[in-house]
């Protein structure tokens, strides 16, 4: 069996990072983000990164940590509103942003991973998002062309993996991770549980091992909550 | 007099039909879920990847892996399915969600919507709003009739960058309800909040609208 399991995030990233590279990261908000690998990227000192991720973390957690150390040159995201450090660097002209509508971003990752260089969508037609992009009429409706994304490296978070790299995500922590896993030239997954071969029902695999080149056990599973909203246990 | 936020949400809830799959935006639209009639069964979708959204959890039920599109902790139901964000927006873009209720900064009389960006201020990004208005079959906007400076938000044309063109089907404000039967028709004033006169609605509205016979 090809050995996909590495001892640490640092070992899994060894030889995989270079300045100026493009990295796609799974996660939505702070949910399902590859916390361990983000911290290892901070420690690697790699610079001038283009990061493709729906959000940019918060100031001191998630991708915000890479922003704080000024290792990111450009973000491709749908929403970056939770991050003051992002705002400071953007307004100072130190950080570039390419907004991609959320569904378009998910589809761009999916398309890139599936060998589709571009696709047409109604999303964003007639808005700033469509400026400079080709449009086409299909059956009387106008669509805008969006490009698939292929990144140098994908980092994802999963709940379970077997040594073959078959991944299972948990609840809404799935979000962008399955598409991100497909669109990296190399994909590294960090997982909460590494299980024995055969322990995952083949019918329950979300991301097949073909998409995953390297695996680590996640050592950061803080799973910080952005909006802790609760109801009284006594109500209703 | 004018409608409160809860009354606006309750009015939007009257547009729900049994069996609908519905996406509710962040803010006042979220309140719509509190006003669903007992004989109506709907399924809420959250675009990050939940179909079948439950209530907020009790403190003991909080699970950081279950959050809605507003990044709030929520719960699952017996009908819930989790999907990837690509599959979730496939539901939206593919026209499988019947109704979305969203907030707005401006709506134009031609149905254009602006709700994602104020030039000169920090730009946060559109999130899923552009996908929702482009893909969901019916779009209801819930917004205050006037902005904080007292200017009309229902206008001849949007002045802010657009989220979508000709996408709004109904506008519910704290003063009135406007609707149009299809996206080639003009908006029509169909209801006013108690005590709100037609003149007051006209004074507070820049958009052209027709008036339903009383």
CATH top level class name of chain B? Alpha Beta
Question: How much strand of chain B?
Answer: 15-25%
Question: Unreliable runs of chain B, pLDDT <50, ≥5 residues?
Answer: none
Poorly predicted ranges of chain A: none
CATH architecture of chain A: 3-Layer(aba) Sandwich
The CA-CA distance between the termini of chain B, in Å, is: 19 Å
Protein name (chain A): CoA transferase subunit A
Pfam families (chain A): CoA_trans
Organism (chain A): Sphingomonas zeae
GO molecular function, one term (chain A): CoA-transferase activity
Task: Give structural attributes.
heterodimer, A: 236 residues, alpha/beta, Glutaconate Coenzyme A-transferase, eight-stranded mixed beta sheet, three-stranded antiparallel beta sheet, 6 helices, B: 214 residues, three-stranded mixed beta sheet, 4 helices, 23% strand
Explain what this protein looks like in three dimensions.
The complex is a heterodimer of chains A (236) and B (214). By secondary structure, chain A is of the alpha/beta class. Chain A has one domain: Glutaconate Coenzyme A-transferase (3-Layer(aba) Sandwich). Chain A has six helices and eleven strands. In chain A, the strands form two sheets. In chain A, strands 1, 2, 3, 4, 8, 9, 10 and 11 form an eight-stranded mixed beta sheet that branches. Chain A has a three-stranded antiparallel beta sheet with strand order 5-7-6. The longest helix of chain A has 12 residues, at 102-113. The N and C termini of chain A lie far apart (54 Å). With 214 residues, chain B is an alpha/beta fold. Chain B has one domain (5-209): Glutaconate Coenzyme A-transferase. Chain B has four helices and 13 strands. In chain B, the strands form two sheets. Chain B has a ten-stranded mixed beta sheet with strand order 4-3-2-1-5-8-10-11-12-13, with helices on both faces. In chain B, a hairpin with a 3-residue loop joins strand 10 (170-172) and strand 11 (176-179). In chain B, helix 2 (85-93) packs parallel to helix 3. Classes of the chains: A alpha/beta (236), B alpha/beta (214). At the A-B interface, helix 4, helix 5 and helix 6 of A face helix 2 and helix 3 of B. Chain A: Belongs to the 3-oxoacid CoA-transferase subunit A family. Chain A: InterPro entries: 3-oxoacid_CoA-transf_A (IPR012792), CoA_trans_fam_I (IPR004165), CoA_transf_BS (IPR004163), NagB/RpiA_transferase-like (IPR037171). Chain A: Keywords: Transferase. Chain A: This is CoA transferase subunit A. Chain A: One of its GO terms (molecular function) is CoA-transferase activity. Chain B: InterPro entries: 3-oxoacid_CoA-transf_B, CoA_trans_fam_I, CoA_transf_AS, NagB/RpiA_transferase-like.
């Amino acid at each position: 069996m090809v050995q996909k399991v590495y001892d640490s995030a640092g070992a899994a990233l060894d030889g995989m990072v270079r300045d100026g590279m493009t990295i796609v990261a799974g996660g939505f908000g702070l949910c399902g983000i590859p916390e361990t690998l983000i911290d290892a990227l901070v420690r690697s000192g790699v610079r001038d990164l283009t990061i493709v991720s729906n959000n940019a973390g918060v100031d001191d957690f998630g991708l915000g940590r890479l922003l704080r150390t000024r290792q990111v040159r450009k973000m491709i995201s749908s929403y970056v509103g939770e991050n003051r450090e992002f705002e400071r660097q953007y307004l100072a002209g130190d950080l570039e942003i390419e907004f991609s509508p959320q569904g378009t971003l998910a589809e761009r990752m999916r398309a890139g991973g599936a060998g589709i260089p571009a696709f047409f969508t109604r999303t964003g037609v007639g808005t700033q998002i469509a400026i400079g992009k080709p449009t086409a009429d299909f059956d009387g409706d106008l669509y805008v062309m969006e490009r698939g994304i292929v990144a140098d490296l994908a980092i994802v978070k999963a709940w379970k993996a077997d040594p073959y790299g078959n991944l299972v995500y948990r609840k809404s922590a799935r979000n962008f991770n399955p598409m991100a896993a497909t669109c990296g030239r190399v994909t590294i997954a960090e997982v909460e549980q590494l299980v024995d071969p055969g322990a995952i029902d083949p019918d329950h695999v979300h991301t097949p091992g073909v998409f995953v080149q390297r695996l680590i056990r996640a050592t950061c599973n803080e799973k910080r909550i952005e909006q802790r909203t609760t109801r009284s246990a006594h109500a209703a | 007099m004018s409608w409160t936020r809860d009354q606006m949400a309750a009015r939007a809830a009257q547009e729900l039909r049994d069996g609908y799959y519905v996406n509710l935006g962040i803010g006042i639209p979220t309140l719509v879920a509190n006003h669903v009639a007992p004989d109506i069964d709907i399924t809420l979708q959250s675009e990050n990847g939940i179909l079948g959204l439950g209530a907020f959890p009790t403190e003991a039920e909080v699970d950081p892996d279950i959050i809605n599109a507003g990044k709030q902790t929520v719960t699952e139901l017996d009908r819930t399915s989790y999907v990837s964000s690509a599959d979730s927006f496939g539901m939206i873009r593919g026209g499988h969600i019947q109704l979305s209720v969203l907030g707005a900064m401006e709506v134009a009389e031609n149905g254009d919507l602006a709700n994602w960006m104020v030039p000169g201020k920090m730009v946060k990004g559109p999130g899923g709003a552009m996908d929702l208005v482009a893909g969901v079959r019916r779009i209801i906007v819930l917004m205050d009739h006037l902005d904080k400076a007292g200017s009309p938000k229902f206008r001849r044309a949007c002045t802010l960058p657009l989220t979508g063109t000709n996408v709004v089907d109904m506008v519910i404000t704290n003063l009135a309800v406007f609707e149009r039967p299809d996206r080639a028709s003009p908006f029509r004033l169909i209801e006013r909040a108690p005590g709100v006169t037609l003149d007051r609605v006209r004074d507070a509205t820049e958009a052209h609208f027709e008036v339903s016979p009383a």
